[in-house]
Amino acid sequence: MRLDEETAIQVVRAEPARRFEGRVAVVTGASRGIGLAIAHRLVAEGARVCVTARKPGPLEDAVTQLGGAASAVGVAGRADDAEHRGHAVRTALEAFGRLDVLVNNTGINPVYGPVSEADAGAAAKVFDVNVIAALSWTEEVRKLGLGHQDGAAIVNVASTAGQRPAPGIGVYGASKAALIHVTAQLALELAPRIRVNAVAPAVVKTRFATALYEGREQEVAEGYPLGRLGHPDDVAAAVAFLASDDASWITGQTLTLDGGVGLRGGFG
Question: Can the keyword Transferase be found in this entry's annotation (predicted)?
């Protein structure tokens, strides 16, 4: 029997494994889109989560969607703010008593156009949020307990734009290329106590990526061998795998999630 796309996605949602029973995750940039889908997947598999985002209102809504205080807490703030990072990690510990998983999902892309014409200050901000903040979150969770229990894992959300040139979003792509390299470097340095991996999605149907497909979704989807754009749940499933014990002999890797578009030389 062949399952269509929607049915297949429903099956994944309906019968999740329980790989994170008793474990606690911090997921950054998780009030909507990919980050919220990741938090949902982890909670569905037994985790309790601390989610972060800049705006308190959407973050409160996300916590409610995740089941409220029994399974989630939210801490609003900027990913590149040291005080916010410390507060978020301490809140997770106070609420749930341990740390097992960090998902660095926060990312920004305010710079469009050729790299050669990019404003230096704007480019620096992209790297601060997309790369330096991920390093700083890693330092914060390590300092406060990640790696003290077996099964500790970090998953960074990169992009296919970091794997090959991406017209118009070169600064963003350069930051994600740096994040991919940082992933491998951290994996080497933090083994064997903490595994570090990344995912690199192509175009996923989120508000963040709307400009890449709005008004021409079918046309863009036809460039993908699998015939569709990505869904946040596609990324969430891959992140959950890499963060779980099912991936216990995997570290330093970047899993490409692109519907096969890279086989045609596209970047998604």
Answer: no
Q: Which residues are designated catalytic?
A: 172
Q: Is the peptide bond before 192 cis (omega within 30 degrees of 0)?
A: yes
CA distance 137 to 133: 6
**Residue segments in the chain with a per-residue pLDDT below the cut of 50:** 1-3, 5-12
Burial of 120 (0-12, 13-18, 19+ CB in 10 A): exposed
Which residue segments constitute the domains of the chain, with CATH numbers given? 16-203+231-258 (3.40.50.720)
Give per-residue pLDDT as tens, 141-187: 999 999 999 999 999 999 999 999 988 999 999 999 999 999 999 99
Distance of CA 194 to the CA centre of its chain: 17
Q: pTM, whole model, 2 decimals?
A: 0.91
